[in-house]
Amino acid sequence: MPIYEYQCEKCRKEFEYLVIGGSEPDTCPHCRGKRVSRLMSACGFLSKGSGGETTRASAGTSACGSCSAASCGSCGH
Question: What is the DSSP track for 36-74?
Answer without folding.
Answer: EEEPPPPP--EEE-TTS-EEEE-SSS-S-TT---SSGGG
